[in-house]
C-alpha cells in the first residue's frame, strides 16, 4: 500500500479520536449539570420510558420499584423541607476545571427559607489527596430579598468574605423563623 494512503488513514483516526474526546467531555459536563425537575416532568419521563421499553428492563429495577423509590425520596425531601424551612427552587452546577486530582465547579442555588428568598453563587474546589477529598468554597455571592435590616447586610457581607455556607444556612434558618414570627405578630396587631 502507498504510504500516503496510510497517512490519510492515520490522520482520519487521529481526528476521530479527538472528536470522541471532545464529545465525551461534553457528555460528562451535561451529565454533571443538575437541576430540579417538577413532579409532572419526572412522572412524564417515567411513563415515556415505560412506553418505549416495556420488556427491556431486564437487569434493571422494575418501573414500580423506581416509582416507589421516587415516592420515598419525595417523602424524605418533604420532611426535610418542613423540618428546616428551606425550599430550594433551582440548582445548577457547571464544571469549570477538571483534572485527575482537582475539580472546580460553579454552583447556582436559589430558594426560600420560610418567607425569605435567597440566591447563592459560589465555586467549589474539590481536591483529592490519596483517599481524602477536601472541598473549599470560594467566590461566594449571596442575594437576599430582605436586606433592609443592617444586621442582615453585615452578616451576609461577613459570610461572603469567609465563604462559610454552613453558618449561612444555620443562621438564615433561625433568622427566617423569627422573622416569620415577627411578621405574623405585627399582622395580628394591625
From TrEMBL:
<dbReference type="GO" id="GO:0005634">
    <property type="term" value="C:nucleus"/>
</dbReference>
<dbReference type="InterPro" id="IPR027801">
    <property type="entry name" value="CENP-P"/>
</dbReference>
<protein>
    <submittedName>
        <fullName>CENPP protein</fullName>
    </submittedName>
</protein>
<dbReference type="Pfam" id="PF13096">
    <property type="entry name" value="CENP-P"/>
</dbReference>
<keyword id="KW-0175">Coiled coil</keyword>
<dbReference type="GO" id="GO:0034080">
    <property type="term" value="P:CENP-A containing chromatin assembly"/>
</dbReference>
<dbReference type="GO" id="GO:0000775">
    <property type="term" value="C:chromosome, centromeric region"/>
</dbReference>
<feature type="coiled-coil region">
    <location>
        <begin position="6"/>
        <end position="33"/>
    </location>
</feature>
Amino acid at each position: 500500500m502507498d504510504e500516503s494512503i496510510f497517512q490519510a488513514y492515520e490522520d482520519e483516526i487521529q481526528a476521530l479520536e479527538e472528536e470522541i474526546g471532545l464529545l465525551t467531555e461534553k457528555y460528562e459536563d451535561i451529565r454533571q449539570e443538575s437541576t430540579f425537575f417538577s413532579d409532572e416532568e419526572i412522572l412524564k419521563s417515567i411513563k415515556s420510558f415505560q412506553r418505549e421499553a416495556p420488556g427491556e428492563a431486564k437487569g434493571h429495577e422494575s418501573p414500580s420499584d423506581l416509582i416507589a423509590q421516587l415516592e420515598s425520596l419525595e417523602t424524605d425531601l418533604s420532611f426535610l423541607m418542613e423540618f428546616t424551612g428551606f425550599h430550594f427552587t433551582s440548582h445548577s452546577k457547571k464544571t469549570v476545571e477538571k483534572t485527575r486530582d482537582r475539580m472546580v465547579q460553579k454552583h447556582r442555588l436559589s430558594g426560600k427559607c420560610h418567607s425569605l428568598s435567597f440566591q447563592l453563587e459560589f465555586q467549589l474546589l474539590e481536591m483529592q489527596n490519596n483517599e481524602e477529598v477536601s472541598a473549599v468554597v470560594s467566590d461566594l455571592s449571596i442575594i437576599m430579598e430582605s436586606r433592609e435590616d443592617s444586621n442582615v447586610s453585615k452578616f451576609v457581607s461577613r459570610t461572603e468574605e469567609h465563604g462559610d455556607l454552613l453558618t449561612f444556612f444555620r443562621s438564615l434558618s433561625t433568622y427566617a423563623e423569627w422573622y416569620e414570627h415577627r411578621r405574623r405578630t405585627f399582622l395580628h396587631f394591625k
